[in-house]
Design a protein that fits this description.
Number of strands: 30
Radius of gyration: 29 Å
Strand order of the largest sheet: 11-12-10-13-14-9-15
Bound molecules: adenosine-5'-diphosphate, zinc ion
CATH topology of the largest domain: Rossmann fold
Number of helices: 24
Shape: globular
Distance between the termini: 50 Å
Largest sheet: 7 strands, parallel
CATH architecture of the largest domain: 3-Layer(aba) Sandwich
CATH superfamily of the largest domain: P-loop containing nucleotide triphosphate hydrolases
Number of domains: 5
CATH class of the largest domain: Alpha Beta
Helix content: 25-40%
Length: 743
């Protein structure tokens, strides 16, 4: 047998090897193997079996080992890898790196442990009989019954002082179940959900929910590829719909993948999921970036072997090696976090859709504020739309008040952090012992330093972005390169003493709140405080327990949080996300407003939202006030159509970086001409121009935009041209297909 393999590092091409007799059984497409290349052993992925080599067979070397007994990638996943390679202009090896966890790629052998559980309750009569005949066996059963989760065998035996034969006898009778695991799984489950497993009976679905479950259920029954978009207002019970559909899939023997934008930020969802499925005896694999190698390998193996059939995780969980995939849920599908900002620059949602297609599975995209890309796919008939317009139990949508900060500034004579209206409402809530959340918009250039007199803004000497002011240690920091220095007390340009801070950092809002509500218990959540690993979960726990009155943080914390006692939400600076050079700025602002508003009034008392803005008439703000997604989408799509922006055309971002700006510009211009010659009408080229962030980490940045109808046509051409053109060594270039960030 001759195989074509793709080495996992350093060689971006297919190489051929012979497979020795002893390995034939273990070598299949998708298997990881070791092969000799220039006298060194390399890891490689088998892509072709019975391949036709480009050199004489006699010259071929032998595959030296197979890493696992089963392939690391299923045929679908290999196909998916090829698609990503072509679509995102990513090297195969980087695609494999994204798809297969390190521990699996290295073939790490981890220590295995045996675990014991009691699969079902032993009936009391039987137990009494055992107690009489074999007291040691009874002791073991009783002990295991008290444990909530599988326990390490060696630990149990020594604790109860019984022999392995005792356990073996019970395993044989089916009273005790034994399994092999790489690690103690309990560890991560507890770390990540605080051990919280939300149990309790599932609620009865309301009419809207049932309709959606039936509609998506019908697609599942057909076992054909179909994408559904679930547009459901915040609090309409989308998660419950996902759970029901996953239950259906599990019941019919299939597997499901549940994607969330960020696992660490959705401990509640994870707890709900585990509670539901583990109670029904389905092991749920939680996939996130903080897993240890062992945990990752364990989860991966369980999925690949079909021992676990449901996985919840962020973006990369879309590559989970599940068997018989029937459903992929993409929650908050509009979230930019689904796009990976390093090679391979894939979009988790789009990969999910493609994977579902390959597997003839159903893909369910859910959001209160769908992306315009997905919404347009509904309008053109590619996706089916399901809508939920009401909150569960007929809870009211919150009232949204818009405060015009221009007037507020005149009234209060000076820069204002909190408007009168917001302060009044906060004081009322505090007296009634209701909780509040204040959101700070971090998408813009916040907390920069601007002189009141001359307008000077302090920027980083290495990057052309404004520096962020940190009051705690009186420093200015660059969030791109990390450069920092002491904050000046007078304007560096005109020496005026009254230098002020534009934009509102979380710290500044915290101070303002302390002034008006000195007795309130506040907690601040942002990336600065969140670097302490478990702090985030702790704060959320305290907030839930009512130990915190006011939570202050960036919109990151808003995702999916469900705190029934929160009746007031303030958005301190709605505008910042509107003033960025990005055609999605309006869409982001609309999403932000609707999502943060969605955190209010989820309990018995209805909620209110106060939005502070300097542009109260903006479309994004007015449509959000009415919670009118359709209105917003219609207006925004019309604008996109007019300018021929996505979703009407694909956008490809070509970034050039290097130390010498003239050189980059010269080559970029030369390159643009080549592309024009080669691709003609297939692509519209804009640029080269300096990037919005002209300089970062001491490198100059230029960009070219390509607009095109078919990315699948254009990307491979660009890659082909790249290989033909000779580039100077000190110019780095990156292609970003369907970029989500335009900086
Ligand atoms: P969404 O994801 O749409 O914001 P969730 O699924 O989180 O909404 O649901 C909001 C709350 O309503 C949750 O606490 C959930 O347990 C509850 N819920 C969902 N469906 C029902 C139902 N049919 N009856 C009662 N409560 C429900
Ligand atoms: Zn910098």
């Amino acid at each position: 047998m001759i195989v074509g393999v793709q080495p996992l590092a350093g060689f971006d091409k297919l190489l051929h090897y012979k497979v020795p007799e002893t390995l034939v059984a273990a070598v299949r497409p998708g298997s990881l193997v070791r092969v000799p290349i220039m006298n060194r052993s390399h890891l490689a992925m088998v892509l072709e079996i019975n391949a036709v080599p480009d050199v004489p067979v006699a010259k071929l070397k032998l595959v030296s080992a197979a890493l696992h007994e089963f392939p690391a990638l299923t045929p679908d996943l290999i196909h998916l890898a090829r698609w990503m390679h072509n679509y995102y202009a990513a090297r195969m090896e980087s695609v494999f790196e994204a798809m297969i966890p390190g521990a699996v790629r290295d073939g790490t052998r981890l220590k295995q442990e045996k675990y014991l559980t009691v699969p079902k309750t032993v009936n009391p009569d039987e137990l009494a009989a055992i107690r009489k005949k074999a007291p040691q066996q009874a002791r073991l059963i009783e002990f295991l019954q008290q444990q909530f989760r599988p326990v390490k065998k060696s630990l149990v035996l020594s604790r109860l002082d019984v022999t392995a034969a005792v356990a073996a006898a019970l395993v044989k009778r089916g009273l005790v179940h034994e399994e092999t695991r790489f690690i103690e799984r309990v560890a991560y489950a507890d770390n990540w959900t605080g051990g919280e497993v939300v149990t309790g009976l599932p609620p009865t679905l309301n009419e809207e929910q049932s309709t959606v479950v039936d509609s998506v259920g019908a697609s599942l029954a057909k076992q054909k590829f179909q994408v559904h978009l679930l547009k459901g207002v915040t609090g309409s019970g989308k998660t419950e719909v996902y759970l029901r559909l996953i239950e259906k899939v599990l019941a019919s023997g299939g597997s499901a993948i549940y994607l969330v934008p960020e696992v660490a930020l959705t401990p509640q969802t994870v707890a709900r999921l585990r509670g539901r499925f583990e109670a029904a005896g389905h092991r749920t694999v939680v996939w996130h970036s903080h897993l240890s190698e062992g945990e990752r390998l364990d989860g991966w193996n369980a999925l690949a072997k079909g021992e676990a059939r449901v996985v919840v995780g962020a973006r990369s969980a879309v590559f989970a090696p599940v068997q018989n995939l029937q459903l992929i849920v993409v929650d908050e599908e509009h979230e930019p976090a689904y796009k990976q900002d390093e090679t391979p620059r894939y979009h988790g949602r789009d990969v999910a859709v493609y994977r579902a297609k390959l597997a003839s599975a159903v893909c369910l995209l859910g959001s209160a504020t769908p992306s315009l890309e997905s919404f347009e796919n509904v309008r053109s008939g590619k996706y089916l739309l399901n809508t939920m317009t009401k909150r569960v139990d007929d809870k009211k949508m919150p009232d949204i008040h818009i405060v015009d900060m221009r007037i507020e500034i005149m009234r209060q004579r000076g820069l204002v952090t909190l408007s009168r209206k917001l302060v009044d409402k906060m004081q009322g809530r505090f007296e009634r012992k209701e909780q509040m959340i204040l959101f700070i918009n971090r998408r813009g250039y916040s907390s920069s330093m601007q002189c009141r007199k001359c307008g000077h803004v302090e920027t980083c000497p290495h990057c052309s972005v404004s520096m962020t002011y940190h009051r705690a240690d009186e420093t200015l920091k660059c969030h791109l390169c990390g450069h920092q220095r002491g904050a000046p007390s007078v304007c560096p340009s005109c020496a005026a003493p009254d230098i002020r801070w534009r934009g509102l950092g979380t710290q500044r809002v915290e101070e303002a709140v302390r002034r008006v509500l000195p007795r309130a218990r506040l907690e601040r959540m942002d990336t600065d405080t969140m670097s302490k690993k478990h702090r985030f979960r702790e704060i959320l726990g305290d907030f839930r327990a009512g130990k915190i009155d006011i939570l202050i943080g960036t919109q990151m914390i808003g995702k999916g949080l469900d705190f029934p006692n929160v009746t007031l939400v303030g958005l301190v600076d709605a505008d910042l996300s509107m003033h960025v050079p990005d055609f999605r700025a309006n869409e982001r602002t609309f999403q932000l407003l609707v999502q943060v508003a969605g955190r209010a009034g989820r309990g018995d008392r209805s909620g209110e939202v106060v939005v502070q803005t300097f542009s109260p008439q903006a479309d994004a703000i007015q449509f959000a006030k009415q919670s009118d997604f359709d209105g917003f989408a219609a207006a925004e799509l019309e604008m996109r159509k007019k300018f021929n922006y996505p979703p009407y055309r694909h956008l490809i971002h070509h970034i050039f970086r290097g130390p010498n700006p003239e050189k980059i510009m010269f080559f970029a211009e030369h390159w643009a001409k080549q592309v024009e010659k080669a691709l003609g009408d297939a692509v519209e080229i804009r640029g080269p121009t300096p990037s919005p962030i002209e300089k970062a980490k001491d490198e100059y940045r230029f960009q070219i935009w390509y607009f095109c109808a078919r990315a699948t046509k254009v990307v491979p051409e660009l890659v082909r041209l790249q290989a033909e053109v000779k580039w100077p060594d000190d110019v780095t270039q990156v292609l970003d297909v369907d970029p989500m960030s335009l900086m």
